[in-house]
Amino acid sequence: MKISVVIPFYNLERYVRPCLDSVASAARGSDAGLEVICVDDGSTDGTPAELDGLAAKDPRIRVVHKPNGGEGSARNAGVAAATGDWVTFLDGDDVWLQNHLEVAVPLIRRHPEADIVALKYADFDDGARPPVPTGEKEKVFDLGESVPSEVVLEVGVFPTFFRRDFVAKGSFSSLPLGADRLYMAQCFARARTVVKCDAVVHGYRVRTGSMARAVWNARKVESQCDYAFGSLEALAASGRKVGREGRSYLASLWLSDVPNRLVRLPRAERRAAWEHWRSTLGSGCVRALPRFERVRRVLRGCSSSMTLSLAAARLFRKLGVS
DSSP H helical segments within the chain, as ranges? Predict the structure, then answer.
């Protein structure tokens, strides 16, 4: 078995070595083949030189240099270059824990029927020690007819392994926020079997300057709108029943959280973002949730007025309806 690790980098010079050292450390003792595909997404600092220098010393590392196109574009380029039986993703400022392949490889081999094998990560502050590995309890989900809320809410892009012939049929969007969630919803809409293990094998570095922690602006609000209702549309189109809690979470992000963030934007940014949100209200992807469907219909009916539609959304949120 061969595993391809796709790692996008953009101006992450100081994190290149810790990231790749963690992968090399976790691979020691594993009998699985490994290729590490580092995608330099048009970095303007010393990242390209760092990557090329490490690749010259380790034949498992391949570097793809491309113009800047965002994380989704970088991941798509990495998947296109992958030759492994399984593909997994790692952010360039995160780390694998020592037990990563020690847990993942036997888990994959125990479940040859799986399309997706998911493990867990734990946060750690930039400059602090990575978390301690834990747990190994596993569950198997057949998604042929339904997608449980536990899968929707707890299975993410990392630390997750995807069968390469499965992952090659999808692609990441260019959304600056929530592309991971949208991608996973699209995966759940077509996956047959998902294996979920509670072992913590990945350290997620919490640092300032990341997109997820940047100040909210119109671009981020529009992205949240797109990934929330886009995820609902993908799941609805699959014809599979989706757990109420998971579907409600996405519906609330779209119909309640987005307008709540809209009112906090500077006036100069608000209208364009509101117009974007308004354009999505025609989607009937929440028909399976009568409460949210009623909210959507009311908001759409009010959408000729930004003031009225945002006021209605705030009222629904205050009443706990959405």
Answer: 13-27, 47-57, 71-81, 100-110, 149-154, 164-167, 179-188, 218-237, 244-252, 258-262, 267-280, 290-301, 306-319
Kindly give, in sequence order, each residue whose CB lies less than 8 Å from that of residue 136, ignoring residues fewer than 6 positions away: 103, 197, 198, 199
Check whether residue 68 and residue 161 sit in a common domain.
yes
Residues 11/12/16/19 CA torsion (nearest 10 deg): -140
- Give me the phi and psi of 81, to 5 degrees please: -90, -10
Q: How many domains does the chain have?
A: 2
Same domain, 266 and 177: no
Which residue, of 191, 211, 231, is where some domain finishes? Answer: 211
269 in the same domain as 166: no
Residue 111 in tokens: 């479940």
Residue 184 CA to residue 188 CA, distance in Å, equals 6
Is the Cβ–Cβ distance between 235 and 188 less than 8 Å?
A: yes
Task: For residues 188 and 223, state if they share a domain.
Answer: no
Is residue 116 located within the same domain as residue 220? Answer: no
Q: What are phi and psi of 7, to 5 degrees?
A: -130, 110
Q: Which of 216, 202, 260, 253 is nearest to 232 (CA)?
A: 253
Q: Are residues 202 and 221 in the same domain?
A: no
The domain boundary, picked from 190, 211, 232, lies at 211
pLDDT in tens, the chain (322 residues): 999 999 999 999 999 999 999 999 999 999 999 999 999 999 999 999 999 999 999 999 999 999 999 999 999 999 999 999 999 999 999 999 999 999 999 999 999 999 999 999 999 999 999 999 988 899 999 999 999 999 999 999 999 999 999 999 999 999 999 999 999 999 999 999 999 999 999 999 998 766 555 688 999 999 999 999 999 999 999 999 999 999 999 999 999 999 999 999 999 899 999 999 999 999 999 999 999 999 999 999 999 999 999 999 999 999 888 8
Quick one: 151 and 296 in the same domain?
Answer: no
Do residues 138 and 37 both lie within one domain?
yes
